[in-house]
Design goal:
By secondary structure, this protein is mainly alpha-helical. It is built from seven helices and four strands. The strands form two sheets. Strands 1-2 form a two-stranded antiparallel ribbon. Strands 3-4 form a two-stranded antiparallel sheet. The radius of gyration is 18 Å and the shape is globular.
């Protein structure tokens, strides 16, 4: 077994990946308190995903899956998650934040910070949209954004698209600044080997 571990990745990198995951989850927790906007029906525009996205871009999908899964569980249990059932907790938090791991597929790629953030946001939005249409539909307002709402899928996609889209724009701005400064890019976004 140690021969296989040595062949795949040195032990010190395994330890480093785990420690960085813990630090990034803690940073995400702290940055989650800096809210730029809070939506009335749930969700907020904040910087919480920045450390998680940075981790995904540094370590790739293998390590990102575990980090994002733990982040999703902690977002629900420690972040005062609101759920109407276990299915809601699963789709709105655990699966939604776990799907951010797809950002890791962009690790080490040209413009990876850009399309990785978009992929991670789409994954999160997909799960949130499922939860909204399947579980939260009874709270759908009669109008949203000046449009009459009769279909829970349309409402859920519009609502979650707005929440996730605004978060993605903020994430892209911050990651774009990091990408533009060579020293920051090297320290924060370069893929780990």
């Amino acid at each position: 077994m140690s021969e296989e571990k040595t062949r795949n990745q040195p032990a010190h990198l395994n330890t480093r990946a785990l420690v960085e995951a813990a630090v990034m989850i803690a940073l995400a927790w702290i940055l989650g308190y800096i809210r730029f906007y809070r939506f009335s029906a749930g969700g907020s525009v904040d910087l919480a995903l920045i450390p998680i996205l940075v981790y995904c871009l540094r370590w790739g999908p293998k390590w990102s899956l575990g980090c994002c899964f733990v982040n999703g569980i902690l977002q629900f249990f420690l972040g005062g998650g609101i759920a109407i059932s276990w299915q809601s907790a699963l789709l709105d938090y655990i699966l939604a934040y776990t799907l951010v791991f797809v950002c890791g597929f962009a690790a080490g790629k040209k413009l990876g910070w850009l399309w990785g953030t978009v992929l991670g946001t789409i994954g999160r939005c997909f799960s949130n949209t499922l939860a909204g249409a399947l579980l939260w539909y009874m709270y759908m307002p009669e109008t949203f954004l000046g449009l009459p709402m009769t279909n829970p899928w349309v409402y859920s996609l519009l609502y979650n698209g707005a929440v996730c889209g605004l978060c993605m724009v903020l994430d892209l701005v911050v990651l774009g600044v990091i990408q533009a400064v060579p020293a920051w890019r090297k320290q924060l976004l370069d893929r780990q080997n």
